[in-house]
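Exercise: predict the fold of this chain.
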Amino acid sequence: MGYRVHQINKQTGVTYVYEAVSVWDKEKKQSRNKQVCIGKVDPNTGDFIPSKRLAPQQAAVRDPAVTASAVITGSTLGFL
């Protein structure tokens, strides 16, 4: 399970968004974080701007404003 990290560059004032995953290091017996930059935050509007290296499908999935929903149709209750 991953989580998001917001880091601010003090020199430029840009806020970058990273997707981080905790991983267990067996040799050192400590947890480590793997981070991937997925975009940045627009300073004026606060909107998420996906990174250019991401495919359009990945950018849509990682956008926090996008939500997914599922609708179950059919006679699924008749088999219970």
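Check your answer against the key: Residues 41 and 47 are 6 Å apart (CA to CA).
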